[in-house]
Design a protein that fits this description.
alpha+beta, 8-stranded mixed sheet, 11 helices
């Protein structure tokens, strides 16, 4: 300041110390709980949006939507005898994309969509398709596709879960561009094979030969013919010696529109009226497939889902028992001659209470037993199963494939009173006086189920079918694919059979809500058919 012409130094102002902000103490929240809360919040947003959409439609008057015809579930009930019992050989309109029409004879199909001949790559799949019946799981069979006009098409085989519109990992096709599609390379993994075709009158033969590899696994070899000339093996999944990791789900005929003029084709080999024009030596027409090689469609979907889940499972997840309950068995050991395994409460003195023959049982002994049952190589044990002890005489075994668990359960299931032990049980010199039995997790002891929960941890959740499929197809005004409907039906049937304690099919949407939550959808009538049902056909009711 300036006072009387004299500058006076202003006194320094005291510095204000900022008020200390009190840090609120927060309770630690694990990351998986945060993620689950976020997923639940997203789910609530989806439900609110769906409710708003329904209210707007009710307020403005529902728009008249185009008729989709009978629902897929109704059509599946009508086709259940052809899907689940042998005898039918035809094109399946329930597995046809929009734009593919099937004639009344069931063997003629026409694509009514032109994808254009100026596509980016002639080898890449781009159009609608259709699949055929039956689904084959063994034997050597052949069918032919006769072109009734010039067109572009892909002919081959695929699993029941493969959509008609593509050849994925479990689809194997021969394209009119002269290349093979599908297999390990997927729809974009084209490789040169054979000559191009696509003229009216061309006849393409698809050959399938199954080779047993031991246990429940089997591997096919697929080859093709063009106008009677064999082109050699296109996809050979068989391995000498047999491996439990090899194999393929049951396959069915698959036709697909390629880049070019729409196809008009006829299926040959389905019956006496249209026999094979160029039969291959050692192969039977597809229409004469036997019941031993036939696979019901619901079973084919179950096997295909099993293979897809196994392909996404790594060794660490398998060893940590991060598999559904239907992949896990409790194995018990007892002295030979007793019907059931020994049940001893775990404790310090439990080992001393065991008979002398059982004290030396090791995890490796059980691994060797299960590997022999599967017909696999012991060197592949870590790839196909995991075994951990839960008590002195009990162990838990996790299998990569559900079919492997079912096979072992069938052989090792405890004998009924008065019944003899299964004769197929392999016996080694060191296990001659010991009997093994197995049971599903739902029937396992409480201690074994508690051990299983501890090994899996709190973050483990089984992924299953979701309502996202229904929401997507409803928004697109499209029918549910037949394979998706079969998966939901199988999941519900398994859930009812195993009870609420099993997490075999946890139908959660990203771990948020089960399929049974109908809070965001309109009620539907119960369409169950009353009365006695044919065995094997109840999956569609």
């Amino acid at each position: 300041t300036v006072s009387d012409g004299v500058a006076e130094a202003s006194a320094p102002r005291p510095l204000k110390r900022p008020r200390s902000q009190c840090l609120a103490l927060r309770t630690y929240e694990p990351p998986h709980l945060k993620q689950r809360k976020a997923e639940e919040a997203r789910w609530e947003e989806v439900k609110e949006a769906w409710h708003r959409k329904l209210l707007e439609e009710d307020a403005n008057g529902r728009q008249v939507r185009r008729s989709l015809g009978p629902s897929m579930r109704t059509l599946a009930r009508q086709w259940a005898p052809k899907l689940e019992t042998p005898g039918a050989c035809c094109l399946n309109p329930l597995q046809a994309d929009e734009g593919v029409a099937v004639a009344d004879d069931g063997v003629t199909a026409e694509c009514q969509t032109d994808v254009g001949a100026d596509a980016r790559c002639m080898a890449v799949c781009a159009g609608p398709g259709i699949k055929g019946l039956p689904v084959i799981a063994g034997g050597r069979y052949q069918f032919e596709v006769e072109l009734l006009r010039d067109g572009a098409i892909v002919v081959g085989w695929s699993a029941a879960t493969s959509l008609p519109s593509s050849f994925d990992r479990h689809g194997f096709g021969y394209s009119s561009a002269g290349v093979c599609l599908g297999g390990e390379g997927g729809p974009n993994g084209a490789k040169a094979y054979g000559r191009p075709f696509g003229r009216a009158g061309d006849v393409v033969g698809a050959l399938l030969a199954w080779t047993a590899t031991g246990g429940v696994a089997s591997a096919p070899c697929m080859s093709f013919m063009l106008n009677g000339k064999e082109l050699g093996a296109a996809f050979d999944l068989s391995q000498p010696g047999g491996s439990a990791c090899s194999g393929c789900p049951p396959l069915q005929p698959h036709l697909f529109q390629g880049h070019g003029p729409p196809f008009l084709v006829r299926l040959r080999g389905a019956g006496d009226t249209l026999p094979l024009r160029f039969p291959a030596a050692g192969y039977w027409p597809l229409g004469t497939s036997s019941g031993a090689h036939f696979c019901p469609f619901s079973r084919a979907v179950e096997r295909a889902v099993d293979f897809r889940a196994a392909a996404a499972l790594d060794c660490e997840q398998l060893q940590a028992f991060h598999v559904p309950d239907c992949h896990v068995l409790e194995v018990s050991c007892s002295r030979r001659g007793r019907g059931r395994g020994v049940c001893i409460t775990p404790g310090p003195a439990a080992e001393d209470a065991l008979p002398a023959e059982l004290r030396g049982i090791q995890v490796a002994d059980v691994v060797r037993l299960l590997i022999r049952l599967l017909g696999a190589d012991l060197r592949e044990a870590k790839e196909v199963l995991a075994v951990r002890r839960t008590g002195p005489a009990t162990l838990l075994a996790a299998f990569r494939f559900q079919a492997h668990a079912s096979r072992c359960l069938e052989v090792l299931r405890p004998a009924r009173p008065g019944a003899t032990q299964a004769q197929t049980l392999p016996q080694g010199e060191d296990l001659g006086r010991i009997a093994f039995s197995a049971r599903a997790v739902a029937e396992a002891s409480e201690h074994s189920r508690r051990c299983l929960s501890e090994w899996r941890g709190e973050e483990f959740r089984v992924r299953g079918t979701t309502v996202a499929r229904r929401l997507i197809h409803a928004s697109l005004e499209k029918q549910m694919p037949l394979s998706h409907l079969a998966q939901e039906s199988i999941a519900g049937k398994t859930r009812r059979r195993n009870g609420p304690l099993s997490n075999t099919d946890s139908d959660a949407v990203d771990g948020a809500r089960p399929v049974g939550d109908q809070s965001c959808s309109r009620p539907q009538k119960n369409s169950a058919i009353k009365g006695k049902q044919v065995e094997g056909l109840g999956i569609w009711n």
